Structure to design on (482 residues):
């Protein structure tokens, strides 16, 4: 060894080798550190959303004071430039958290080659509550308006109740569960099978965290013209064959519904229809179609057509004897006495269907002598005869007037006595005419087979149209009859 150390060439070679080793060590240790420092950069990622993991949302509801964070990251420029913001994740692990208030650290992940320098904030305050459920009635809020003249009817909504789930502290704020419908000139009913439901507090604010089950409802909102139900009056045209007369006319229904504006409907009190008797070929009962047209100015009528049962029979006769005449219209300060006939009654020969005639009595017939407007003296007063429906006077055989004397009493005492005598001898009107109106004394065309002109008639459904259940209104009146 000493030999080698004393050799100058060896020493030179050794010194050279040691120098190379030291140079290599210095450059290997320092060069990478210097290069890294030059290429490393920082970057700020704003508004990174805080995600929630591990929460059983069916049992719990969570509120937190942080929704987004800011991340300060560091890495190579190439990594920072080409990594999208959604590659940075921040989340909250609630898998082990119990109800109550909790302060929890935030978890995070960054792209490969990127490190986190700082995150603001780095923890979150969390409040967790058990969910509570309560049922509420479902209501409907209708805004806007249908087409002009149309009305909105009572809406139908299904289901009638919905369950609202919220934290117990929030559930008490729920005032209503409601669907919203906006109308815009509709003429047809509004329908929605999946109308979204919302929960609102007492001030009308939506509770957006509420879970509503079911979340939708099926809704029907009627939209239609105003309507009015009117009694049906039927008059006749055409004629019956031979010596037939009507005995009963019965429609499928005795009312109709008319649709139109309120202004027009308020002026309608009944609906008049005209039935053609021409299809009737023989005695018996037949079904006749009756077409109904909307009154002028209205939109529609329901039904638009109905069946009418028409019964007819061979004409028959019957005489009612001593039917009393009733005086009406006696002026103030006058008394009235029927001079002729002395009995103050008349005999009536009537025609009609046998079944109707058999049921007649004096209670079904009204004979009135109206002396209204006449002065004191003797007057021949025409009689006004009211008969049940489909019954008529036989023409040419009856006295159609009475002679009445109107007197002015000489003294108050005499006037009182005369008044008592008149009241005793002359019955006061005690009942409405069987048809609700006075019937002309001429025979009805329904009995003679002549064409019957349509005429206004009383409603079929009012009691005053028939004197008894066995007899209808006047011969040219409305439906009903027997």
């Amino acid at each position: 060894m000493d030999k080698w150390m004393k050799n100058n060439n060896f020493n030179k070679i050794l010194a050279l080798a040691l120098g190379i080793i030291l140079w290599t060590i210095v450059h290997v240790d320092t060069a990478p550190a210097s290069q890294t420092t030059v290429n490393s950069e920082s970057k700020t990622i704003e508004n990174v959303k805080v995600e929630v993991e591990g929460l059983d949302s069916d049992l719990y509801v969570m509120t937190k004071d942080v929704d987004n964070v800011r991340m300060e990251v560091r890495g190579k420029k190439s990594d920072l430039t080409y990594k999208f913001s959604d590659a940075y994740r921040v989340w909250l692990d609630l898998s082990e958290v119990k109800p109550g208030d909790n302060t929890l650290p935030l978890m995070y992940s960054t792209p490969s080659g990127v490190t986190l320098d700082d995150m603001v904030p780095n923890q979150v305050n969390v409040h967790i509550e058990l969910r509570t459920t309560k049922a509420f009635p479902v209501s409907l809020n209708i805004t806007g308006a249908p087409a002009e003249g149309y009305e909105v009817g009572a809406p139908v909504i299904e289901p009638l109740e919905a369950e609202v789930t919220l934290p117990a502290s929030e559930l008490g704020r729920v005032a209503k569960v409601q669907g919203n419908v906006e109308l815009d000139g509709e003429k047809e009913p509004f329908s929605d099978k999946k109308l979204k439901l919302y929960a609102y507090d007492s001030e009308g604010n939506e509770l957006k965290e509420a879970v509503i089950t079911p979340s939708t409802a099926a809704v029907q909102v009627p939209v239609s013209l105003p309507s009015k139900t009117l009694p049906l009056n039927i008059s006749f045209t055409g004629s019956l064959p031979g010596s037939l007369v009507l005995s009963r006319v019965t429609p499928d229904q005795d009312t109709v519904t008319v649709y139109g504006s309120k202004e027009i409907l308020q002026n309608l009190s009944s609906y008049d229809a005209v039935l053609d008797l021409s299809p009737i070929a023989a005695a018996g009962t037949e079904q006749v179609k009756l077409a109904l047209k909307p009154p002028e100015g209205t939109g529609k009528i329901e039904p638009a057509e109905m069946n009418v049962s028409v019964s007819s029979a061979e004409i028959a006769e019957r005489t009612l004897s001593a039917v009393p005449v009733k005086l009406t219209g006696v002026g103030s300060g006058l008394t009235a006495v029927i001079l002729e006939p002395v009995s103050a009654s008349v005999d009536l020969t009537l025609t009609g269907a046998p079944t109707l005639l058999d049921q007649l009595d004096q209670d079904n017939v009204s004979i009135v002598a109206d002396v209204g407007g006449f002065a004191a003296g003797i007057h021949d007063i025409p009689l006004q005869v009211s008969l049940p429906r489909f019954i008529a006077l036989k023409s040419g055989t009856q006295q159609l007037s009475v002679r009445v004397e109107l007197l002015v009493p000489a003294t108050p005492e005499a006037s009182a006595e005369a008044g008592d005598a008149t009241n005793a001898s002359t019955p006061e009107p005690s009942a409405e005419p069987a048809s609700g109106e006075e019937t002309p004394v001429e025979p009805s065309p329904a009995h003679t087979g002549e064409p019957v002109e349509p005429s206004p008639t009383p409603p079929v459904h009012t009691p005053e149209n028939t004197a008894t259940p066995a007899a209808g209104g006047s011969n040219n009146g409305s439906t009903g009859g027997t």
Q: What stands out?
A: The two ends are 155 Å apart (CA to CA).
